[in-house]
Each structure stands twice: as structure tokens, then as C-alpha cells.
Amino acid sequence: MDQQLERVFEAVVARNPGEAEFHQAVREVLESLGPVIKRHPEYLEMKMLERICEPERQIIFRVPWTDDKGEVHINRGFRVEFNSALGPYKGGLRFHPSVYLGVIKFLGFEQIFKNSLTGLPIGGGKGGSDFDPRGKSDSEVMRFCQSFMTELYRHLGEYTDVPAGDIGVGGREIGYMFGQYKRITNRYESGVLTGKGIGWGGSLVRTEATGYGTVVFANEMLKTRGESMDGKRVTVSGSGNVAIYAAEKAAELGATVLGFSDSTGYVVDEGGIDLDLLKQIKEVERGRVSDYVERRPAARLGTSGSIWDVPVDVALPCATQNELNGQQARTLVANGVKVVAEGANMPTTPDAMRLLQDAGVLFAPGKAANAGGVATSALEMQQNASRDLWSFEYTEERLTEIMKKIHEQCATTADSYGVPGDYVTGANIAGFEKVAKAIQAFGLV
Ligand code: NDP
What we know:
GO terms for molecular function: glutamate dehydrogenase (NADP+) activity; nucleotide binding. This is Glutamate dehydrogenase. Belongs to the Glu/Leu/Phe/Val dehydrogenases family. Keywords: NAD, Nucleotide-binding, Oxidoreductase. The chain is of the alpha/beta class. It has two domains: about 5-190, Rossmann fold, CATH 3.40.50; about 210-370, Rossmann fold. Helices cover about 50% and strands about 15% of the residues. The protein is built from 18 helices and twelve strands. The protein has helices spanning about 5-15, 20-30, 35-40, 40-45, 50-55, 100-115, 140-150, 170-185, 205-225, 240-250, 275-285, 290-295, 325-335, 350-360, 365-370, 370-385, 390-415, 425-440, and strands spanning about 55-65, 70-85, 90-95, 125-130, 160-165, 235, 255-260, 265-270, 300, 315, 340, 360-365. Helix 13 (about 325-335) runs parallel beside helix 14. The longest helix is centred in the last third of the chain and has 25 residues, at about 390-415. It is globular, with a radius of gyration of 21 Å. It starts with a helix and ends with a helix. The mean pLDDT is about 95. NADPH dihydro-nicotinamide-adenine-dinucleotide phosphate (NDP) binds near residues 210, 239, 262 and 264.
């Protein structure tokens, strides 16, 4: 890393102790920006990087709720409003026991550049709680969401901050939170949350968008080598929102999806996974991967190793951060992987990323490859503003067009900085430049 950027990084670490994921996300971006500050030395004088690394606002709050037995629980809620240079803060809410400030800050930081890449007017933010929705009844989840929103609502607004879903937050949770927001404010402010249900302000394709977009991006990368998803062998990790719809789009483009996982294990189904069954188990029954194997004799449950041991052409990490390490990347390369596209945020560890890139694997960073979700959230906001509902076909067309443009931006930026095919550098620089220009235009605010 450039020495001046190294100093910026050291200051970030010192100011944000114990936030390993945030440090990792910042380092990855700063490592790409050496050539940018050579072209724009004024950014150093303006402390542009220090400004981008410091959230505009960080909110931490208590979330009290009672379970079905009447027992009281206290969780912690977060919203990090990271950067509003390009538009209202935009980014999901994560409910997972691993959530703490460092996770929310890494996600919020990534979100700034991702949202910039979409070309849509949205700033970066992220939030969530250490609440674990697994094993909770519907009414417990509802009471938690209501309590969470009772504090969060005062910080939101369609022109201020617009959350959406993420791990542990899907249509059900967004419904409860929107209901509580509407009740407290006495406003049907559709554009204040995205990922809403169809029929009360949601957009078609939002559910599918992140997974679909990731596969469109992977397909674009393959095209640069005269190939496509057609006929490829694919695995996805996770079996949540992103994983399911990445698998669906991959199959639609002619690939065979051989496996998926959750935090309890992984499944290999050599003939291609049964998506209807997977959706039934995960979206309706909220079950485990073992339930799939029980109902599908041809499939087997992985008991040792990981989903990355399965030989494939295309690997799509779609579960969580740092879920693909150096050793696993080595296995993928040895087995002939051609593409790794991140559906999740920062799923690949830094050493794994380097290893894949050095081996000539087409590697798509999450901030580019999974930007389809937030892009479609912005399309949901557009529909809310005009009180309209677009068709599935039209919305998907817009999504595909946005993903192709993001791919092109990353590729041409990488070319123009002398690192063709380096989508990490391309995404970081292209995302950063737009935000930096806006920050510069606003003066010191
Ligand atoms: P979901 O909650 O729908 O699904 C998450 C999946 O990942 C589940 O199968 C879950 O398994 C698995 N998982 C979570 N944590 C772990 C862990 N520590 N180890 C192994 N598996 C784990 O979340 P999403 O699909 O919405 O999100 C997945 C990733 O995609 C996240 O990184 C998120 O930030 C990112 N993303 C999501 C977007 C969206 O639109 N939803 C947009 C852009 C990025 P289990 O149920 O067993 O925990």
C-alpha cells in the first residue's frame, strides 16, 4: 500500500479499535487507491480518505422486548449513517447474533462504493441488531421489530435514511417494521423502507435482485473470455435470499447448480438442485439443509470440509463475511474454478482473493457483483415516488442493464489504471471517484 494511505489506514485502526471486519474492508479499498491519489494529490490535502472512513453518524440503542413466556430480553440496535454525498443513506438491516459495531461499519463502508457504482442517487448506510430471529415465533419477531423501529424511526425518512433487509431480515421483518413506522408517524411513507411486499409498495424483482444480479455479473465476466454461464457447474454458499435467486438465475442461463449450504452444513446434489424444494424448506418452513436431503435421496449432506470442496466452474459465495479462506480458494483453483463472484458482502478473505486473482480466476467483489439488490431498492423508491408498479419484465430489464453497466465501469476503470481484469481495483476506484467528486463539490461539511 502507498505510504500515505498506510498512514490513513493506521489512523482508522487506532480510532476504531477491535473492529476487525471494518479494518479489513477499509484496507481493501485503500490498497486500490494509490494510483488515484497520484492523479489527484488534492484528495490528500482535503483529507478525502479520512472523511470517507469516518461515518457521518453512528446510532446505538437499546431494544427491549418480551418473548412468548413474558420474559424480558435486551438487544442492541445499530444504524451507521456512513455517507450521504450521493443521496439518502441506503443499506440493509442485519439481525444476527454476530452483529456488533465493527460488522455494521464494514457493511456501511462497502455500501458507499456499491451504491455509487449503481449510478443511482443513494448514499451508504447499514444497521441491524444482535437479535437472532432463528427459533423465534412470529409474534416474538413482531415484538422485536416493533421495539427496534420505535427507536429507529426518528432517524429515518425517504430523503434521509432508507433501510432494507439483509441477513435475518426479509419480507416478514420489513412488514412489521413498516407497520410500526406507519403507526408512529401517521404517514404512509412508502419510500422509507425497501424490500416491502408486493401490494403495499414493494417492487417486483426486489426479492430476486441480488442473486440475479450476481449471476448477470458473472456471465458478463465470462463473456470477456468468449464463454457464458451455459453448461457451467456452479455452487452457491448459503441458502437464503441471495443464494436461492443466484441459483435460480444460474439455472435459467443453462448452468447446473450442484450445491448450497447453511450454517449447519452443505448439500451436494449432482443432478442439479431442486429449487422448488429448496424454496419450500427455506422460505416457507424456515428449515435446515438436512431437511432437503431427507426429501431428496439423490442428494448428500456434506459432513466434513465445505461446499468449496465440490469441483465447479463457478463459485458463488452468498452467505456471510470471510466464509471462503485461502485453503478453500486453493482447493477451488486446483479443481479448475473459472469464476468467483461474491453474492455476499466480503465473503472472501484477503489471502483467498489474492490467490484467486493470481491464478487468473475471474473474481468479482461483492460491492460490484451484489449491487443489484440495492439498485432494485432504488428502483422501488422510484416506483414509490411516482406511485407506480412496474412489471416484472421491465424491472428485470432495468436490473440487467444496471449490472452490465457496473461490469463495464469496473472493467474500463481497471483498464484505464493499467490493471485489466482486476475487478477489485476497478470497482474500488470507480465507486470512490464519484463519491469523492460529490464530497469535493459540497465543501467542508
Ligand atoms: P439470509 O438471511 O436470507 O441468508 C443467509 C444465509 O447465509 C443463510 O443460509 C444462513 O444460514 C447463511 N449464513 C449466515 N451466517 C452464516 C455463517 N456465519 N456461517 C454459515 N452460513 C451462514 O441473508 P441474505 O441472503 O439476504 O444475505 C446473504 C449475504 O448477502 C450477506 O452477506 C448480505 O450482506 C449479502 N447481501 C444481501 C443483499 C440482499 O438483498 N438480501 C444485498 C447485498 C448483499 P443459517 O440460516 O444457518 O444462518
